[in-house]
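Batch job 17 of 40 flagged for manual review because the log was empty.
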Amino acid sequence: MTPAGSQHTTSRDRLLDAAIEHFGRHGIGDTSLRGIADAIGTSHRMLIYHFGSRDGLLAEVTREVEARQRAVMTATYDQELPPLAAAAAYWEETVEATLRYGPLFFELAAHAMQGREHAAALREELIASWLPPVVELCRAIGIPEDQAETHARLALGAARGLLLDLLVTGDREQVARSADLLNRLLLLSAQTAAETAAETASGGGRTSGPAPTGPV
């Protein structure tokens, strides 16, 4: 979150944290701005002052939750875990967040696509803020530099599709299997790229075995 440099910033951050915690516990629903204000111990005037409207508050909640999820992703993959173990651990974290905030995310993503003013900042971040860290993860598992962004877009789009599937069907087990398959396909792509590079380096000869991608 934005570092507190003034009372204005500190108050806004505190209200945003309180709203995120409240929504995480009780869901979004159709609560009015006054209802949200009552629930988090402030006035609707303060929420209007800092966020402009109910939709503006919800958009900022979505942006902050997304930022926290990116931080969780980085922290999870920074651990000394095999690729598939790290992916599974992060998936579980993502599922828990999606069950709390997913409907809000997809609603506000639709607002962003429709060009609504309160979701303008979210529109700028939906892809652009996620691509760099996902591209870095693709590089880390061995995806070639010239293919990393393409793989990252595939991973990001497929993962969001699976999370939408989860919210619609509630089939957590089957969706988790599909997420695991997606991760295995990404690792297979990295392995294939390594084998191709080895063949090229050896003048076209076959390598004796698959290139290692780390224990999985």
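Reviewer: the log was empty due to a logging misconfiguration, but the result itself is present. The radius of gyration is 21 Å. Unflagging and moving on to job 18.
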